[in-house]
Amino acid sequence: MEHANPPRQARFVFVWGVLGWGGSTALAIALFNWYTTRHVETNYRIAGRFLIFMALGAVWGLRIWNRRDELGRKKLTRAASITQLVLVVSLMLGLALRAMAHH
Questions:
Q1: 1 part of a folded domain
Q2: Cβ pair 85, 16 in contact under 8 A
Q3: Contacts of 68 (CB under 8 A, 6+ apart)
Q4: Where in the sequence is the domain holding 52, given as residue range(s)?
């Protein structure tokens, strides 16, 4: 019998780790660098930053997934999970925009 855990784990790691943390952090750094220097970095530098942060995000996502199981945390509904992701990304973008506005 096939276990249903791996697809959910892979989705969790991809959404929360790779996209949520890694992608948004790399994007925030790229936008902040563009704002402060007023020029766009080379494509290799931007791609490298995304690659590094998304790889670290995958590791972070796996760690959070394992930690969540260790703590015996109740399972979130899909709506609650999406709401949390939207809140985290919104807060990060809001802080980045606020920092840019005060620069």
A1: no
A2: yes
A3: none
A4: 7-101
Q: 57-68: b or e for each residue (b if 16 or more CB lie within 10 Å)? A: bbebbeeebeee
Is residue 42 assigned to a domain? yes
Domain count, the chain: 1
Query: pLDDT (tens digit, 9 = 90+) per residue, 30-86?
Result: 888 888 888 888 888 889 999 999 999 999 888 888 887 666 656 667 787 788 888
pTM reported for the whole predicted model: 0.60
Tell which residue, 4, 93, 54, has the closest CA to residue 46.
54
Q: In terms of residues, how long is the chain?
A: 103
Residue 1 has pLDDT above 50, yes or no: no
Residue 63 covered by a domain:
yes
